[in-house]
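Task 17 of the worksheet. Students: predict the tertiary structure of the chain below and write it out as structure tokens. Keep your answer in the requested format; marks are given for formatting as well as content.
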Amino acid sequence: MKTTPENTVLRCFTRTIALLMLLVTPALHIHSNGQEITNRLTGYFNATSDTLLYNYFSFDGNGKLDITGMGDGYYFQKGDSLIVYPDKSIFKFLLKDNKLYGVSEWVNGGVWQLIGDSVVESRRTSAEAADRIAYLLNQYYEIKAQDRTGFLAAEDHAYRGKMKALCDSGLSKACLDYAGLRIIENLGGIGALLGNKPVDIKQDADPEILSIIEKVIRMGDMEGYAVLGGYYTTLQDRKKAKEVLEKGGELGCRRCVWAAFSIALEEEAAGAEAAGKKKSVPEPVKRKK
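Model answer:
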């Protein structure tokens, strides 16, 4: 099926997925050297300046954080270095004297102070299980830093294999990347998406992709709902997409709330445009008998 004007949102979404797969760690290298890898950091860090893009970061002590109420992210700490994966980028901080010092793009030069009297619920129920995820996320970080563009070759499945291995080991973020790679593959590959070529749309959801995303949700990662809703959007099943995103929003997925709101706005705009076109059509002149 060839793309039509209705597929504008589809093209934007699929190219966003493609660009996310291209994101790499921009020369941020952390060396182990026996440093502890953990995600025990807990607390609310408030920006020390009102000019910073991100007002606060709130860490749950279990590898997830709230980023200014706009979305959730993943994090791990190695020594005094803190790596955060938000929705579409990567942040690096140095942690010193209860302050976060931004040292990468988007946060560079910023300082966030731990608020001692803030109440942040720790979700760290098992230190061993939590730090295992931190270790896997560190592996993910190193793969992204080392395997920058090799996965773009259609015949090279090494990168995808590494994401699958991390997914199978229990890292939900790797599962989301793996699902994204499969979605891109089903839509003709990253070259087609970035090359503004017509996209053939699979009308039926791929059972394997659904299985990967459902696995993420079973892991307790609500970001799975956002990716699942986006996947149904690529299949032009807006009704299903809205159902998934609304459910995710109810369960605490912030990205789902924004995505559902965006779909509602697009539908409202499309309805207004259709109504305007209908009004602009002149009524036929009735002749007198």
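Marker's comment: The first helix runs from residue 8 to 22. The domain at 5-23+148-271 is CATH 1.25.40 (Serine Threonine Protein Phosphatase 5, Tetratricopeptide repeat).
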